Amino acid sequence: MFIFLYRADKVRVVIRIEKERLHRLNMDGKVQVLRIQSVTKRKINRNAAAIDSQNNNLNVGDMSRQGQIKHLYRHFVFIFCHTLTENGGIFVLSSIPSNPINTVPMSPLRITSPSPHTS
Predict the structure, then answer these.
(1) Are 96 and 53 within 8 A, CB to CB?
(2) 21 closest CA partner among 31, 29, 6
(3) Local confidence band at 99 (pLDDT 50, 70, 90 cut-offs)
């Protein structure tokens, strides 16, 4: 499970928890180590969305070529990749890169049924 930490205009994701400290990855891609006692509440926005340079929608849970989108914050995208061993498999990208991220939604946005009024 991933824990997202907010403070003012920053967001961080916890990538490793040890006995008395934890490691977190910030928006700049840097890892910081701090004591567990310094962590307070967490806030999760499951309705977060962003768009890439090609105006494609990005949502939490979408799969890209690199991995699964775990969290969105402003134009930062936190992606989990099974093949990446560094930082617990999580890395940070900007959602406005020169190339689109090419995501595949986890489920369709809307399920439609045939209209009874069409022939």
Answers:
(1) yes
(2) 31
(3) very low
φ/ψ region of 43 (left if φ > 0, alpha if ψ in -120 to 50, else beta) reads beta
Measured between alpha carbons, how far is 50 from 57 in angstroms, rounded to an integer? Answer: 6
Task: Tell me which of 103 and 89 has the higher pLDDT.
Answer: 89
Does pTM surpass 0.70?
A: no
The C-alpha angle with vertex 34 and arms to 33 and 36, in degrees rounded to 5, equals: 130
Give DSSP secondary structure letters for 2-58.
Answer: --EEEETTEEEEEEEE-SSEEEEEETTS-EEEEEGGG-------TT-EEE-TT--EE
